[in-house]
């Protein structure tokens, strides 16, 4: 259980922060960038939810919770020491990826295949979902960069990859089932 009775602690005033295992590292470390970007994405999902209803809003709510799980996973290095931890660290699970894939398949079933790339925009919700898509891709790039020097849970990286796909398909759904997608016209303004 998390208890926060004091919001500022002054422990990070010199540019470092504590990870989930208590280790202190620089706030600009790739690990902090990765889970910080997941937090940023969560904020953008919250904005998108202002324009979502029904199942889309419910799915975005699940994604927000998953993004906290993702942050908890990424802020805890040393996966090989998980068994030794006093409390088992929270790690992303393949089931979370599977759920995204199932949701993508349901959303995509009624969409016409794309014949062109699409531009971010259209309906307000679609535009917000495209922002979420690009921030998810940035979080994924940071997580894979981190993975070049430290262990990173493969399910976390896969989740981010699939999540950006989810946002893309959901944006098409928000654009009147793809009918209001804004198509890219190569060289249109030459």
Low-confidence stretches: none
Q: What is the CATH C-level name? A: Mainly Alpha
Report the C-alpha radius of gyration, rounded: 18 Å
Mean pLDDT: 93
What fraction of the residues are assigned to beta strands by DSSP? Answer: 5-15%
Q: How would you write the strand order of the largest sheet?
A: 1-2
Overall form: elongated
> Which structural class is indicated by helix and strand composition?
mainly alpha
Looking at the structure, the CATH topology is Hypothetical Protein Ta1238, Chain: A
How many H/I helical runs?
5
Helix content: 40-55%
Write down how many β-strands occur, each being a DSSP E stretch of 2 or more residues. 4
Pfam families: Cob_adeno_trans (PF01923)
GO molecular function, one term: corrinoid adenosyltransferase activity
Subcellular location: Cytoplasm
InterPro entries: CblAdoTrfase-like (IPR016030), CblAdoTrfase-like_sf (IPR036451), PduO-typ (IPR029499)
Short description:
By secondary structure, this protein is mainly alpha-helical. It has helices at 30-49, 54-74, 94-108, 124-147, 154-174; strands spanning 16-18, 24-26, 118-119, 182-183. The protein has one domain (27-183): Cobalamin adenosyltransferase-like (Hypothetical Protein Ta1238, Chain: A).
Features:
two-stranded antiparallel ribbon; PduO-typ; mainly alpha; corrinoid adenosyltransferase activity; two-stranded antiparallel sheet; EC 2.5.1.17; Hypothetical Protein Ta1238, Chain: A; 190 residues
Structural write-up:
This protein is mainly α and 190 residues long. It has one domain (27-183): Cobalamin adenosyltransferase-like (Hypothetical Protein Ta1238, Chain: A, Up-down Bundle). It has 5 helices and 4 strands. It has helices spanning 30-49, 54-74, 94-108, 124-147, 154-174; strands at residues 16-18, 24-26, 118-119, 182-183. The protein has a two-stranded antiparallel sheet with strand order 1-2. β1 (16-18) and β2 (24-26) form a beta hairpin. α4 (124-147) runs antiparallel to α5. It is elongated.
